[in-house]
Amino acid sequence: MKFYQLKPEQRREILQSEGINLEDIDDQVLNRLDKLSENVVGQLRLPLGVVQNFLLNGQSYMVPMAVEEPSVVAAANHGAHIFARNGGVKATSKRTGIYGQIVLKVNHDFSLPDLKKKFPDLIDLANKEFASLIRHGGGTRSIEAERKGDLVYLKVLVDPAEAMGANKTNSILEFLAAKLKQFPGIEEKLFAILSNYPSQLTKATVTLDPKTMGGRKVAERVALLSKIGYEDPYRAVTNNKGIMNGVDAVLIATGNDYRAIESATAVLASQDGHYRSLSKWTMQDGKLVGELTLPMAIGVVGGSIKARKDVQQSFAILGKEINSAKLAEIIVSVGLANNLAALLAISTVGIQAGHMKLQARNIVSELDASDEEKKKVLAQIIKQKDYSESYAQAVLKQIREGK
Ligand code: MEV
């Protein structure tokens, strides 16, 4: 039997026989995970943190974030706190659809104008074939075409309703490609697959009174850092990493495809041929105004979302009213909150102070010590601002020697 055909327990036995130490795992959990992925031998878990009060479009949300870096959740909470002091963040999402691509090889019998005349019929056919998508409020919306030599590029826009829509879009594209084969002059379909090109654009904006965030000088510094991020790609990419810290953490917590968002985001950041910050902070009438637009091909149903209990708990945290538009708005707004917190840290005490305080917990958790001892070590290393493992060990030794 091939490795992928084995039961997960059998795969684990093979790895263990090679001397690999695997974490214990409940049989039921293992078998459930085996249905979600391939060659499964275990699971990887992440801490699930929350932003407690995220004020967005006048509504307060508790937002789940799955990430192993403590400063990310702390930064989101810090940004969210400042947003809330200023009436919250406003966001809008355009759930117009995601793109699919069909590329065809054509010969001299092919006529693009004739093909274009067929598009309304093709859209109708697709919407009849995929009627359940229509019932959910989605559907195939448009087809555009362009010829480049003997290749024709079709761009199909599919509204996936409440889902991310990758599977459904791929099925629709295959269906359309099969119909197109009958058209004169089309020799072959080269491929028919969704495109991760930016779509489902979601924008978050916030207007902050400098008094709520350290004063005018700090606000002006944030705006200056933002300008640097617009001009300098070395800074832009780091700025954008800070945004993706928050974005990815919510995407992962809600079982969404963060790879798709990451790749689409990179396109958006370099849309004028120069890689730039995705966010923009400017001083306007004495206020600091922040804005961020991101492609949010996400969903609240579909994929493995329903099948994953860990993801379902995130949706329970978000509350019953959540839909894909609201989730997209939350995600982009959290990205903006993380971005603000990072810019504030950089423009004031520097990032390392906050980071190291949080990393101190990781260092202390590694100590072979009681909870009480760990508490004392943590307090001491934070006091001394020495976050090295050797210092933590030395403090533990002193505590044990009663010094
Ligand atoms: C660290 O994870 C993210 C930051 O570097 C982002 C930034 O510099 O804007 C703090």
TrEMBL record:
Coiled-coil features, chain-numbered ranges: none
InterPro entries registered for this protein in UniProt: HMG_CoA_Rdtase (IPR002202), HMG_CoA_Rdtase_bac-typ (IPR004553), HMG_CoA_Rdtase_cat_sf (IPR023074), HMG_CoA_Rdtase_NAD(P)-bd_sf (IPR009023), HMG_CoA_Rdtase_sub-bd_dom_sf (IPR009029)
Catalytic activity: (R)-mevalonate + 2 NAD(+) + CoA = (3S)-3-hydroxy-3-methylglutaryl-CoA + 2 NADH + 2 H(+)
EC number: 1.1.1.88
Keywords, sorted A to Z: NAD, Oxidoreductase
Record GO biological process: coenzyme A metabolic process
A GO molecular-function descriptor: hydroxymethylglutaryl-CoA reductase (NADH) activity
A Pfam family annotated for this UniProt entry: HMG-CoA_red
Pathway: Metabolic intermediate metabolism; (R)-mevalonate degradation; (S)-3-hydroxy-3-methylglutaryl-CoA from (R)-mevalonate: step 1/1
Domain of life: Bacteria
Family the UniProt entry places it in: Belongs to the HMG-CoA reductase family.
NCBIfam families, alphabetized: HMG_CoA_R_NAD (TIGR00532)
PANTHER family registered for this protein in UniProt: 3-HYDROXY-3-METHYLGLUTARYL-COENZYME A REDUCTASE
Protein name per Swiss-Prot or TrEMBL: 3-hydroxy-3-methylglutaryl coenzyme A reductase
Natural source organism: Lactobacillus helveticus
